[in-house]
């Protein structure tokens, strides 16, 4: 029996691109969110490109304001990593922390752009009707980031302790090496391994998604009349100011948790 894609592949692709998704196979796991991927890629290139350009033009003399800002940012991230990770942090962990913080901060900062104006631009300029402008308001983004860090923790655990040492830790920590305790150790470690990416991703997603919803509700309130416009504008400004703290704070929290997980992977129990 022929599928929709086999009968008319052009209309099938157009339909899914209109809804900002592309199916690679059966099931929701194989659905790509085009808007999330494109926005994440663009912001990733901008963030890394900006730092690369500043470092490339850095001088040992009197630094420019931009260079001074980037140096302060790098020193701040390096200090945070130094307080958590006890090892050669400059080999991987500190650069990864800087990348995570700057990238997630830019992903979150898309929430500052006015929803109504951006929706008009997406639809009338680019012809995109369902474009999601805040990648971290999509749970797929935060899960992808958290799972990437989770995979890195397993990789470094095996690299530092060896595969045998990693397996031994799963069965022998934290309660001891007695074979009677092996099932309890394994169960506790499996719960920890499962809960890390879940809490890591859902914390960021929940706060950014909630912030987006509140902005939308305040915008809809402004359409109810004069009173709604006044109160919506006042509350919108207040929420926007408070949201600056949320955006920066959760980028920092996501980065710190990544450093903590990588530090734990390098330590033996």
Would you write up a description of this structure?
- It is a single chain.
- By secondary structure, the chain is an all-alpha fold.
- 74% of the residues lie in helices and 2% in strands.
- It contains nine helices and two strands; from the N terminus they run H-H-E-E-H-H-H-H-H-H-H.
- It has helices at residues 4-7, 9-18, 34-56, 65-84, 93-109, 115-125, 139-172, 182-221, 226-266; strands at residues 21-23, 31-33.
- Strands 1-2 form a two-stranded antiparallel sheet.
- A hairpin with a 7-residue loop joins strand 1 (21-23) and strand 2.
- Helix 3 crosses helix 5 (93-109), helix 4 crosses helix 5 (93-109) and helix 5 (93-109) packs antiparallel against helix 9 (226-266).
- The longest helix has 41 residues, at 226-266.
- The termini are far apart.
What is the gist of this entry?
The chain has 269 residues and is mainly α.
């Amino acid at each position: 029996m022929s599928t929709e894609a086999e009968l008319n592949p052009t209309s099938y692709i157009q339909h899914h691109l209109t809804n900002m998704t592309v199916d690679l196979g059966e099931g929701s796991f194989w659905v790509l969110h085009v808007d999330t991927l494109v926005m994440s890629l663009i912001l990733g290139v901008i963030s890394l490109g900006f730092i690369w350009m500043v470092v490339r033009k850095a001088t040992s003399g009197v630094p420019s304001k931009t260079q001074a800002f980037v140096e302060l940012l790098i020193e701040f991230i390096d200090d945070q990593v130094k307080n958590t990770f006890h090892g050669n942090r400059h080999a991987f962990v500190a650069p990864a922390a800087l990348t995570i913080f700057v990238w997630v901060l830019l992903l979150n900062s898309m929430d500052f752009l006015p929803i109504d104006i951006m929706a008009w631009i997406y639809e009338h300029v680019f012809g995109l009707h369902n474009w999601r402008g805040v990648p971290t308001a999509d749970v797929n983004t935060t899960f992808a980031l958290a799972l990437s860090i989770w995979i890195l923790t397993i990789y470094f655990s095996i690299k530092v302790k060896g595969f045998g040492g990693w397996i031994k830790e799963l069965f022998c920590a934290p309660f001891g090496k007695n074979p009677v305790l092996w099932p309890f150790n394994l169960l506790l470690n499996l719960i920890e391994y499962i809960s890390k990416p879940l809490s890591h991703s859902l914390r960021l997603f929940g706060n950014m998604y909630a912030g987006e919803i509140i902005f939308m509700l305040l915008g809809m309130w402004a359409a109810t009349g004069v009173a709604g416009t006044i109160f919506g504008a006042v509350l919108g400004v207040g929420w926007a100011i408070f949201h600056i703290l949320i955006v920066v704070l959760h980028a920092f929290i996501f980065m710190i948790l990544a450093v903590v997980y990588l530090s734990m992977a390098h330590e033996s129990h």
